[in-house]
Amino acid sequence: MRCVCCDRLLNDFEATRKSKITGDYLDMCNKCVGSVQESIETLDRTDLAEGEVPDEEIEFDDEFFYDEEEDE
After folding, report:
1. CA distance 65 to 18
2. Cα separation of 15 and 2, whole Å?
3. Each residue of 14-46: pLDDT tens digit?
């Protein structure tokens, strides 16, 4: 998968970044998302970030898991 802005290959962390509002994948590299981060809230998989994070330190955002029936 490639960044929609600069066409750079995305790593797993970048490829799983979602919009907190819409839940859609952003498909943007860290550099490009940094330029719009003030206006877009994101949901990130911190366990996929560079360097490993021990399982007990992974924080999950409760809003990431939602009931699809609420969207209707």
Report:
1. 12
2. 8
3. 999 999 999 999 999 988 988 888 888 899 988
- The two tokens of residue 26 are 């952003």
Cβ contact 59:16 at 8 Å: no
Cα 22 versus chain centre, distance: 12
DSSP 17-66: -EETTT--B----HHHHHHHTTT--EE--GGGSSS---GGG----GGGS-
pTM: 0.62
